[in-house]
Each structure stands twice: as structure tokens, then as C-alpha cells.
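Issue 218. Parser rejects a valid record. Input:
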Amino acid sequence: MKTVVIAGAGPAGLTAADRLLEADGFRVIVCEASDTVGGISRTVRCGSNRIDIGGHRFFSKNRRVVDKWLDIMTLQTAPALDERLCGKQSCDNDSLDGDPERSDRVMLRRRRVSRIYYLRRFFDYPVSLSMATLSAMGLKRTLRAGIGYLVEHMRHRDIHTLEDFYISRFGRPLYSMFFEDYTRKVWGVHPSGLSADWGAQRVKGLSVTAVLRDMLRKSLGLKDRGKVETSLIEEFMYPKYGPGQLWETLADNIVERGAELLMQTEVRQVHIGGDGKVEAVTVADSEGRVSRIGCDCFMSSMPVCELVAGIRGCEVPEDVRRIAASLPYRDFITVGLLVDRLRIGNHTPLQTYGGRIPDTWIYVQERDVNLGRIQIFNNWSPYMTGDFAGSMWIGLEYFCNEGDGLWEKSDSDFIAMAINELESIGIIEAAAVRDSVRIKVRKAYPAYFGSYSEFDKVRHWLDTIPNLYCIGRNGQHRYNNMDHSMLTAMAAADAVIAGSSDHSAVWEVNTESEYHESTAGGSSAE
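Output the parser choked on:
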């Protein structure tokens, strides 16, 4: 039996374990530092309500990933599922008004509705050129946007920064209205200081041209989803009780099949033997007890900075240590609010329960608040709240750096600030708040500035360790969506099963030009 140790029980770590267990001859040990599986894709329970950290749409153009999601969820007791959304097949939506009495489905089909809140008005996201958008912008802004786009289209700007990327796709006026301030909120850095790699990865196919093409497709009644930019998808799958339901199910399943899942067990050191391979890891449990686990292979979804700092038994080049130690991250805070009602109602053509707004996400572009995004959990799934009919369960998302003013605020002060901000922009009345909770997440988003520009040096050195595989979002310091994190794990496990030390397939995940989910600045945790 070959022993494979996996650091992290998030989507990447659990997927890697699952794949290895499909083959014979592997002892699989998963070490999870926290007391919960799923990583940032976990579901947090707050009484009878549930919070999806960051929001996770289950959509992929990769059939292997979609089949795996459905296979996992059919482990639950429920009729066979037929909601297979992989970018090429269409399906009817479950109504957004939901029906809490329906308990026969484990996976729900959801309608994607995301909008931008700017100037105390709603704008479509992805940005559309509909009459509603043009009317909300007003004649002067519309003319400026059109002229700005045409000027940029003729200019052929050189792309060096994320600001260059957005302006080249939309023109400066639209960039200023819908991308600049939100991006600065998410990263704490102006887009002119962010690498264009972000745009190349996250916003690949989105542009004014793509928006116009999508509008034409819809007007002609064309339904070929395979040709739709991922940013323009309108449907996705969602587990009834949030993404954590899927990962909790998979965790239970791999344990039943023989994997060892060590909770509250942190990988602290990675030991390299004389042959240049990982021979063991040192772990510490919740009581601080330290032990050493020998292994034939190590898969790491831990942050690259922690991985490199923990390597022992070989000399790590000084520039690799320096780059890894200073890789930037963005931390995340969410506030869950249970409210009687929202002040904003449904002014869209969509049918909703009680005239509620239909949005899953609302991107907040308003410059006078720190708030970055609002989730409406009722619209992700009616089962995310214990009182679907009588209340609204919402999540307020903030982006910060560990140790800064937002991070260090007490829970009560932070929640009071969040309620204040939401009231000031006209979303709620403070008196309508019934309950609240605050959740902090470290290293939620690998960032694309600072020493990231030298990251290839770290990657190439790590690749010299033949039985070390970097998987997942933090493992690769790449802002992957959930499906891409899973694919890195599948590629790594495939290599281990085949006895290959070639890491290229693992790093090539999410470098294809045709696909990735876009956000208005990049806070999606999908």
C-alpha cells in the first residue's frame, strides 16, 4: 500500500482522496486543520439558518466534474437526479419562489440573477445594454459610455494591468462605473496595481462584444448553451442545504471506503528525504500533540506560503522563500442578518415569492460604504433559512486584511456598522433585524499583486519535488472556482495512480482560454 497524505479537506483535498480510493493500493490520510470539511465551500449553520461562505454556483463545462457532483449527491437518499448542467444542455428551472414542503430533491436548479447596486439603483450583471440599463444610466452617461468604448476599440491598448484589461474590454466610462471601485474593495488595491493575469483568468470571454452577441442570441431564440460565455450563464445547480452538504457527504463516504480523515490536524512540516522526495509530514492536533506520518506522496492544498515555510530536509532557494513568504492574500468577513423584510422589492419580470427581489448576489458599487456584496440566501435555496416564508436571511460580504481595522473590530461593533451601511443605502431598516452573526475567513482569496509576479519561480522549484502536488485554490495561489480546484485534484490523483511525476497537467487546469466564471472585480468563491 502506498500512503498518500493530503493537506486540507476542501473541494480539492476531498476530491483527490475520492479519486485515489477508486484505484487499488493506496492508503489515504486527509489532514484538516479546522473542525469542518469543505474549506471556503463549507456551509456554516447559525441556528436554523445556513450561510454559504462566498456563494457557490454549481456550474461547469467539464463533464467529469458535473458527473462527480451528481454522483456525490446521489449518495443521499433521494430519487435519481437529472439536472445535468455542463454548459451544453438546457433545463427547466425550479421556481425561485421555492417550496419548503418539497423535500424530494437533493440538488436544486436555480436561476442566476446577479445585479450591481450603484447610485441607489440596480444594473444588470453581467453588464447588459438593455433598455433598463440605458434608462438607469441616463442619456449623458450612456453617450459617454458609448464614445469611451469606441475610442478604446480603435486604440488597441497595451495590456499591463487589470485596469488596462477592463478598459480595453469596456471603455473607461463603463470601467469607472461598474468595475473600478468594487475591484478596489475586493483587493484593497487599485486595479492599476493588479496583474492583468486576473482578467485573463476570470473575465476571459466577457466584453461589450460578448454582451451584444448574447443579446442577439436571445432575441433570435438561440439556445446553444455551449456557445454562451460562462459569465452569461443563467442557470446553475445548488445543493438543497448549501455547498457544505456535498462536501460533508463526500467526507463521510471516503471514510466509509477506508480513508483516514484527521480533523483539527494541521500539517506543520514537510520532510524531504535524501532522494529529493517527500518522505513524511509532521502534524499537530488540537491539543498540540505532534506526530510524524510517513508517506509516499504528499498533496498540498495549504497556502503556498505555509507549505514552503514548512519544508525541511533540503535547501530552499532564498528567492523562493522570499517570494512565497510575501505572497499576498485577501481575507474575508461575512455578516449574516435575519430580517423581517427588505426595503427593496421585485421590479423585474421574474415571479418571486411575496414580491421579493430575485437576486442571489448583489454587487455593491456604492463608494460611501465598505460593503462589497450581498447574498440573498432565500434565493439560493429555500432550505437555507428556517423561516423561508416569514423572513429574509442575507449575507453581507466584506474584504479586508487580517489585522486591519475591519478585521480587528469586535463582533458587535462590526455588525452594527454593517447594519448601518445597509440601512444607509436603502436596503433594510435597522428595526427589521431579528438576528445576526459574524464570520471571519483567513486567506480566502489568493491575490495577484506584490510578489505574485515572481510566482513562477516558486512553482518551478516545487515541481522539482517529484511526489509533491499542489492542488486547489491556495495550493496553487490561483483564484480557481470550485470545479477547477476539483480538476487540479483529479489531475494530481491521476498522475499518482499512473506513477507519473509530471506536474504539468495539474498546473494547466484553468489556463484554457475559453472558460471561467467572471465577477465584477472578482469575489466569487464558486
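Fixed in the parser; the record now loads. Residues 131-155 form the longest helix (25 residues).
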